[in-house]
Amino acid sequence: MAFEFVQGIHLHRTEENIDEIDALAQRLGGRVGIEGVIQDLNRRARRSFFAFGRAVHRAYRWDRSDCRSRRWWPQGITTTADASDTGDFGGRRLLVTTWYAKEHEGVKKGSRITILDLDTLRYRHVLLVVPTLGDDGTMTLAPLSVHAGGIVWAGPYLHIAATSRGFMTCRVDDILRVPDERGVPDRLKLDASEDKVASFGYRYVLPVRFSYKAFSAEGLEKMRYSFMSLDRSAQPPELVVGEYGRGEQTTRLARYPIDAESMHLVVADDGFSRPLMLEDGGVVQMQGVVVTGGTYYATASNGPIFPGNVYVGRPGRFRKHRWATPIGCEDLSYVAAADELWSVTEHPNRRWVYSMKRAWFDKRS
Predict the structure, then answer these.
(1) pLDDT at 365
(2) For labelling alongside 295, which of 127, 233, 306, 310 has CA 20 to 30 A away?
(3) C-alpha to C-alpha distance for 80 and 333, rounded to whole angstroms
């Protein structure tokens, strides 16, 4: 298939961290993948009826400690509807969110994902890590320090937004379990320099496999990959990315084609991935966008006091639906089988995972 790419911005996929991940897996006794996590979910979300937002259909709350945490802040969201044509993973409907950490007790823990089973409402956190190997074989382990404002589960990959850096990619099969005999019980330490692994107390870790680094032409501002979603209504599927912007900042939206077989971004003849569309037609404080059937749905936050808005239409021609979401709305994901938009909110004691019926907006357009 021939593509007409937009010039000016592009992404470059790095080499895969195969040796580093293999070495960490060997130390921890092998990979367990996402299958291992969903058999060991240790927390419970609960149905909530207090997520104020005019378009909210159904909402859930994290457990008490996650709702109150001032270290960890929810951001991105994706589901098994993105991951596969069947919309499930081994018969289970899963939802994955990202969180980034603010510095607390003198430690900044980077970012993590949360895997939530929508049928049982059980969930578990998985720490995102970056392993490296020295020339002498010495291993170091660092947190993935990105804002993680968006996430897409595309086939075997989790793409995690990294703002001006582009985005980071993990493979769900690479999830590792830290067994008691190999772990260090120190919740303020991350290290793999000795024969054991300190993982901030997390039972499961997921290493970064590669990244898509962001570049721009001379004189053009680099794209900020603030959030992302997957448009499965496009053929081939497309990765939709956009910018959070305030004041004079740009609020651009871009769409990259995905190779349906490898689930990597399509590469142009020059070896770079370039967008099919780039428009500066978003909205201020845009937090997430999904596209289906050519129509865009965008969340926009109103700070820690007022509910958020949803904008529907096309770049530059959006219609505003005021107070459609709870306070602190973030990223968006679309579940076609249920015709629902899913999102998450970030502020302590006002944290929900919630769905909105897409038809609700169509009836008011």
Answers:
(1) 66
(2) 306
(3) 10
Between CA 143 and CA 66 the distance in angstroms is: 19
Phi and psi (nearest 5°) for 206?
-130, 115
Q: pTM for the full model?
A: 0.97
Task: Give percent above pLDDT 70 in the chain.
Answer: 99
Q: How many domains does the chain have?
A: 1
Q: Tell me the per-residue pLDDT of 86-107, one tens digit each, with 9 for 90 and over.
A: 999 999 999 999 999 999 989 9
| Domain extent at residue 282 | 9-362
CA 179, CA 29: separation in Å to the nearest integer? 8
Is the per-residue pLDDT at 2 higher than 80? no
Cβ–Cβ contacts within 10 Å for residue 265, how many?
25
Residue 29's nearest CA partner among 166, 198, 175, 139 is 175
pLDDT beyond 90 at 1: no
Q: Establish if 301 belongs to a structural domain.
A: yes
Residue 337 CB-density burial (10 A; 0-12 exposed, 13-18 middle, 19+ buried): exposed
Q: How far is CA 143 from CA 17, 72, 174, 295, in A?
A: 15, 14, 16, 37
Cβ contact 161:147 at 8 Å: yes
* CATH assignment at residue 339: 2.115.10
Q: Which residues contact 310 (CB under 8 A, 6 or more apart)?
A: 55, 297, 298, 299, 300, 320, 321, 324, 325, 341, 356, 361
pLDDT score recorded for residue 236: 93
Residue pair 324/310 in contact by the 8 Å Cβ criterion: yes
